[in-house]
């Protein structure tokens, strides 16, 4: 490394922004260049399908830091500019206009982008994808004019948008290929809690249904399903998953796993020494789960960004956190710790119909994942429970009179 090194971060989302902050907190006093192709100061994405979409918060409320904060950290923010190539041997990145910035350590935190719906009409005006602040602004304005909408995909994003649209007084049809919302993550039993939640809030659910076309000449006017059903709509929101933005990395020959993100080791270093990746784009070796994991969650982006920053400074810190996710839909807030598999046995503590409960996903009698819904301040204990890897009888998990702490310690 040179006497006054420069560390460059490509991608000014949550992972990139938190890495920049962490570099300073870890004592780095060289130059930090944080590059993002969005014009906005780095912001939190989760509110874009929740409070921000409903117009309850402003852009300033969701910034990671304001402009003063960034200048106090002495971070060179280069916004509204895309990096188009990385030169590994020459140790620089290049922008579209040919300008270059040299780096001593490089972090790729380029995130993910939403998948479009590959059907006729999938690109008509009035079909919305949601990833960026500007997408949320456009969608909010359109929702304010809409009477009825169709949301395609009942994963987290689609389910949250459906809930927000109902809260804004719009009629919603929710279309999903699975049997219940969130089935691919949570499985049938927990997913059916979300099915009932949406139904009781007036959403028309179309499960086990696929979209064959988005109808309309000059703009979307409805959605056609596989069985010929037509769902009229003033607008359509597509939430059918994201793909990691790994093109920069694959173009220069970094290991990129089968379309599933930039491969990094447990210390978040790519196949090229000195280049790291973090957040939605990183397919990281998880030293506890003993396999690669690419996680599309807020907490993962923050914590991986921080660990990558420490390792850019030589800390050699493994990233071994269990995944953590949260979601808010109507009056149901939940946190999910660990990695559920829809095929696992699920044990409930409390009655889901009461609105406050926990759910545990078990593999070989051990808790692989735990959800707390409308029960708060238990995440640390649930994380310990998941991390302990100890066998626990289902009866004890289900028994509300047994303190959670006791499950961790005995
Ligand atoms: C609407 C919405 C709601 C969500 N809700 C939740 C939630 O409730 N709970 C939860 O845990 N998670 C949620 N998430 C997921 C969470 O926000 C993401 O996991 C997180 O934002 C990932 O951060 P990241 O920094 O890895 O990627 P991103 O936030 O995608 O940031 C990457 C940035 O890099 C930029 N970029 C890409 N390529 C280049 C390039 N070549 N040059 C310059 N810049 C580039 C991108 O434009 C982007 O700004 C939600 C996501 C969305 C979209």
UniProtKB/TrEMBL annotation:
Swiss-Prot/TrEMBL keywords: FAD, Flavoprotein, Oxidoreductase
Domain FAD/NAD(P)-binding positions: 7-305
InterPro entries according to UniProt: FAD-oxidoreductase/Apoptosis, FAD/NAD-bd_sf, FAD/NAD-binding_dom, FAD/NAD-linked_Rdtase_dimer_sf, Reductase_C
Keyword Flavoprotein in annotation: yes
Organism domain of life: Bacteria
Required co-factors: FAD
Any one Gene Ontology molecular-function term assigned to this protein's record: oxidoreductase activity, acting on NAD(P)H
Xref: Gene3D superfamilies: 3.30.390.30, FAD/NAD(P)-binding domain
A GO term from the CC aspect: cytoplasm
Domain Reductase C-terminal as annotated: residue spans: 324-407
Name of the molecule in the record: Ferredoxin reductase
